[in-house]
Amino acid sequence: MYPINLILDNKPCVVLGGGHVALRKVKGLLEAKAKVTVISPQIVEGLAKLVETKAIIWQKKCYEQGDLTDFILAICAIGNEEVNAQVRKEANQKKVILNVVDRLEFCDFALPAKIRRGDLLVTFSTNGKSPALSRYLRCKMEREFDETYANWLDKLVQLRKEAIEKLPTSDDREIFWRSALSDDVMELVRAKKYDEAEASIRDAISGFRA
Ligand SMILES: C[C@@]1(CC(=O)O)c2cc3[nH]c(cc4nc(cc5[nH]c(cc(n2)[C@H]1CCC(=O)O)[C@@](C)(CC(=O)O)[C@@H]5CCC(=O)O)C(CC(=O)O)=C4CCC(=O)O)c(CCC(=O)O)c3CC(=O)O
Ligand SMILES: NC(=O)C1=CN([C@@H]2O[C@H](COP(=O)(O)OP(=O)(O)OC[C@H]3O[C@@H](n4cnc5c(N)ncnc54)[C@H](O)[C@@H]3O)[C@@H](O)[C@H]2O)C=CC1
Question: Where does the record place a coiled coil (predicted)?
Fold first, then answer.
């Protein structure tokens, strides 16, 4: 497995099937700001609400060959081997990247469990061996990854700009950040002393010698 984070903002994605698994996958796509269409003869209540609020488009029908046209990514959550095979075939023809929720061998990608805190994204996966373990680790680590990292990340955006202005080469910046983002600084962050942490990084930028 090769981990990548897809940038799906406003890109057309389709979920086939309208059950609870489809709902979870749709929610994940919406978090990534994708433009989501669901194709299914029936949908669960959670999906119906998303249709009502126009958060997603619903095509009330069974999947047919040709339905993947115009989509860049598809998730097949129907749970039928025959349909899975048809969808896999069309995805190959149209070069659409596909996830089949009950068949890892048919997948171009699998979904990890995730913790999102602002722009920070932490993911867990098990190569399909135990989604339950991915979920367990996500729940456990949610406590560790509270909002402090996301708040700090917002500050780092500006500090990174300043480091780019003051430190001439990318080698310098690599050396700088590996030492500047120290346990001591991160302890200040954990204590929500963002200003002190910020000042410490600024001092380090002005005092940096390669
Ligand atoms: C391969 C993969 C394909 C994919 O969906 O991309 C896949 C496949 C399958 N899952 C099944 C079952 C369960 N899936 C979950 C939960 C999650 N499943 C997710 C991802 C993945 N699931 C991909 C690999 C992830 C990895 O590598 O770890 C998560 C992480 C992400 C998400 O869905 O968004 C999300 C947790 C989100 C969260 O809570 O954080 C639970 C637990 C629960 O719901 O409580 C159960 C019941 C317990 C169990 O079986 O473990 C079955 C049916 C097995 C059967 O028939 O018994 C299959 C099919 C098969 O295994 O063949
Ligand atoms: N990857 C994952 O995270 C998980 C996967 N699964 C597997 O996912 C599959 C789906 O699970 P559920 O959502 O609980 O099932 P479900 O049976 O509730 O949902 C299937 C949906 O597909 C629709 N459908 C049926 N035929 C269709 C067709 N030809 N075209 C379009 N839509 C069609 C149905 O109307 C229904 O909405 C199962 O095979 C299950 O084993 C189960 C748990 C987690």
Answer: none
